[in-house]
Each structure stands twice: as C-alpha cells, then as structure tokens.
C-alpha cells in the first residue's frame, strides 16, 4: 500500500474456526483477486472472534495458518494485499474496548446472530458472544475502510458498525470513515447446505453438508451424490420449490464460469445424475490447482509465519494511526 497510489480500502475477515468450504469460495474468495486490483485490501483471520465459541487450541492455531495458505493459493498476492491474523495486531482489542463504551447493551442483544448463537451454545453465553459485533466494528473502523464484502448473515453487524462510527463521529468530528457494504456483481450466488438446502452451507455444519476446499475427489463425489434434490426430475432454477437442485446448478455454474441458464441448457432433457456429475466435475476441476498450491504453501511453515508477520506489521502501522487519534479524541492522557 503505497502512500502515493492510495485506493479505497476493502476489509474482509473470516473466522479460522475450520477449513473453508466451497461456499466461502463461491461467495467470497474467488472474487477477492479481482477486487484487489480496485482496492487496497486487508484479509484478516479473525482468531479473536473465534474464541467466542470454545476452540481446541492446537486446531485454532493450525486453521489460522491454513486459511492464510488457502487465500494465497486462491491467487491473493501477500505483497499486494495485507493478509494477517487479528490477534497479531493489538489495536483491534484496544479499539474494541473504546467502542464498547459507545455501543448500547440493547443494540447488541437485538443482533440475530447473538440470539442464534446463545440458543446454540446455551452452556456458554459469554460476554464475548454479546460484544462480538463491537470487535468487528473495531476491525473495520481501524483501517478507514470504505467497503466490506459481507454475506446476508453479517449485514446487521455491518449496519451496527456504521451506527457506531456515526455516533462517534458526531461526538468527536470525522474520525472514522463510515463503511459501505460491498455488493458483489455475482450476488445471489448463495451456496446452501447439501443435506438441508434451505440453510446456508457452513463449515460448522455436519460433515456431509459441505464440501471443504481441501476435500479430495472421492469425498466430493460422495457428498454430491448424496446431496438432497427433489422428485420432479426437472433441471431448472427455482430456489423456493427446488432448493437442492437450484443449489447444484449454482455450484456448477460458479465452478465452471458459466451462468445458471447455460448450465441448465447444457443438461437439457437429462436427469439429476447428469447434474450431479457436472457439479462434481466442475468442483474437482476448480479445486485441483488450488489444492496443489495450497499443499505446497501449507507445508512451508517458515513462509506462512513470515507472511503473517509481514501482514501484521503493515496492518499495525495503519491501525495505530486511527487508534492514536481515537485515544486523543476521547481524552486519554498522551505521553
Ligand atoms: N464476523 C465475520 C464472520 O463470522 C468475520 C469478521 C470478523 C468480519 N471481523 C470482520 C467480517 C470484519 C467483515 C469485517 O463471518
């Protein structure tokens, strides 16, 4: 990120709480390389957010490195983009504290995700689960972010980030850029669970419900073969009445660089077996080159460590500017 050629900032983060799925790839990852031409991008492994749910320490550590490797394997240049782990940049936790004092308890309790997660993790409704969106606001606002690509599930959190930024700005002057959601041109490519196509595909779902970015050909074939369809036998897009078939069409289209209509046309008069074969083939063809690059990178521990260190240093320098300004504005004694 050179000082002279400044582009608007794009901020994106993912929790390294597991291996990413083809849902993450289709909905986000595959677009990032193109976005990095138009924006100065930060790609964050939100490991602090992951702690709101119990993690196995060794796995959280491993997944953080794996997600970083996967991002690079998908074509993101770690020199051009800032790829880093949230916990390596202490300013996130510090700004989150300040912003906690500008966020209302009622706002946080209204968040759909808080309500859902409290129900799912009833034995561990910790304060972090409640203040999660404040840390997310800190992530975004620290970098004077212009745009944040978010899926439907994070939209409410981004709205809250905007409210917090506006509230702070109205008290102290223009400290934060108020971030906008980035609406992707391929919006609508929402990938659903293979076993319950009315729910979003998630890495925390049951094993057969998602295809991981590192699944081998056999696993991909098996999971697609078992994917839920319907009994009318016709290959067409109808998310309401045919969510399973529509999902397979979406996946096939995204993974083969075609439109859903083109996929349907190419399979005209054929059955779901043919659709499943096409989906399987498209997934394998797209993932194979990414997976071989990923395997090479993830084995290179020194490279991953160096990449994360470099990313953290660059992120920290940017974050520090905003944090200093905030500390000064709210009246903390400056040394
Ligand atoms: N909460 C996001 C998710 O689970 C991850 C996240 C953390 C994030 N910080 C962010 C996303 C900042 C966008 C911007 O998907």
Notes on the structure:
This protein has 335 residues and is mainly α. It has 13 helices and five strands. It has helices at residues 22-38, 47-50, 57-73, 91-100, 105-109, 112-120, 127-141, 155-172, 217-226, 243-256, 260-266, 272-299, 301-330, and strands at residues 9-14, 40-45, 82-85, 147-149, 180-182. The strands form two sheets. The protein has a three-stranded parallel β-sheet. It has a two-stranded parallel sheet with strand order 4-5. Strand 1 (9-14), helix 1 and strand 2 (40-45) form a beta-alpha-beta unit. The longest helix has 30 residues, at 301-330. The protein starts with 8 loop residues before the first strand and ends in a 5-residue tail after the last helix.
Secondary-structure element pattern, one letter each: EHEHHEHHHHEHEHHHHH
Helix content bin: 40-55%
What ranges have pLDDT less than 50 throughout 5 or more consecutive residues?
none
Number of helices: 13
> What share of the residues does DSSP label as strand, in percent?
5-15%
Main sheet attributes: strand count, strand direction, barrel closure: 3 strands, parallel
In angstroms, what separates the terminal alpha carbons? 29 Å
Q: Give me the Rg, rounded.
A: 21 Å
Task: Choose one word for the global shape.
Answer: globular
In the sheet with the most strands, the strands line up as: 1-2-3
What is the averaged pLDDT score? Answer: 95
